[in-house]
Amino acid sequence: MNSSIVFFSSTDFGASILEKLIDTNENVVAVVTRTDKVRKRGNKVDMTPVKKVALDHNIEVLEYDRIDEEGKAKLKEISPDFFVVVAYGAILSEEVLNISKISPINIHASLLPNLRGASPIESAILLGEKKTGISYMRMNKGLDTGDVYRKIEVEISETEMFDTLNEKLLNVTNESINTILKDVSEGLEPIPQEGESSYARKILKDDTIIDFSKNAVDVKNMINSLSTHIGAVAFIESNRYKFFNARTANVKLAPGEIKCDGGRIFIGAGDAAVEILNIQAPGKKRMDAKSFLLGNNLEGFVDGKDN
Fold it and tell me: Secondary structure of the chain: what % helix, strand, coil (to 5)?
């Protein structure tokens, strides 16, 4: 199709979708992303993954943490048919949304109105949901409250991690995005969201600390929801460890009690135990449990707090 697109995003997920649009000859005329960040160490400048893709393909990049008057004027000058928004990182005003001539489309990683907000993928795993999906929504001034063009379901397995679910959702998006743009340009109308809504707020530092008094399934889900982009945190002898990828285990241990046996790491939870499959010690690289135990040992109990 020849409809012009301004693409808004700041994440790896968005970068992959942008690549798909470019590879399928969609008319992406500009990219809007968050401004470069300067690291505290070494003053190295980090650009967003989306900016990297745009520059590689000679697409104009507009950098705004919030769309100011200059940004509005620039977008009005471009006057695109579509905005396509994927985890851009800032709310767009109604004035900005109305600049797109056909529709401002948001791609949200849940089955709206379930799990509106900043962390829908992590929250779906954390809550033990059996399914989630992608929602193509006509944006309004609310937070993920717009009418929906189409929803595509994805099943969540009992061993799902953030990385694997993220990949599933990315695949269904890349398989469907061109069709959605075509259908909307040809008159597809969105329908209002129905059902009870829920909210997936931004993940904070305290949200990453594991509570081993909870049942084993909940602990396993919490660890896997943060694997491997963040990591779930446990303090052992006041040292901060990160756990990635866990499964439940039928081992009798007290909550927080650690047992290492046969190259495997088990920690007690409220009703059973979890097996930690990947671990990162302070100042070290992430490794599988067996490799970690070749040169390290864990024993005692998880502290549950940073001393």
Answer: 30, 30, 40
306 domain residue, yes or no: no
Give the burial class of 16: count Cβ atoms within 10 A of its Cβ; 0-12 exposed, 13-18 middle, 19 or more buried.
buried
Q: What are the tokens at 153?
A: 């379901």
Q: Do 193 and 215 fall into the same domain?
A: no
Is there a single domain that holds both residue 110 and residue 234? Answer: no
Residues 180 and 257 reside in one and the same domain: no
Out of 38-52, 77-91, 207-221, 276-290, least confident range: 38-52
Q: In this structure, is residue 213 part of a structural domain?
A: yes
Our count of domains for the chain comes to 2
Give the pLDDT of residue 38: 78
- Using the predicted structure, report yes or no on whether residue 2 has a pLDDT greater than 90: no
Q: Which whole-number Å values give the CA distances from 60 to 5, 75, 83, 144, 232, in the listed order?
A: 12, 12, 15, 27, 38
Range of the structural domain that residue 91 is part of: 4-199
- Would you say 145 and 195 are in contact if contact means Cβ atoms under 8 Å apart? no
- Assigned token pair, 81: 């048919």
Structure confidence at residue 40 as a pLDDT band (50, 70, 90)? low
The CA distance from 17 to 180, in Å, is 13
The DSSP line for 59-75 is -EEEE-SS--HHHHHHH
Distance CA 246, CA 255 (A): 16
**Residues 195, 209: one domain?**
no
User: CATH number of the domain that 80 lies in?
Assistant: 3.40.50.170
The length of the chain in residues reads: 307
CA 9 to CA 7: how far, in whole Å? 7
Alpha-carbon distance of 173 to 19, in angstroms, equals 12
Q: Are 6 and 29 in contact (CB under 8 A)?
A: yes
The phi-psi region of residue 300 (left if phi > 0; otherwise alpha if psi is between -120 and 50; otherwise beta) is left
Q: What angle do CA 85, 63, 101 make, to 5 degrees?
A: 45
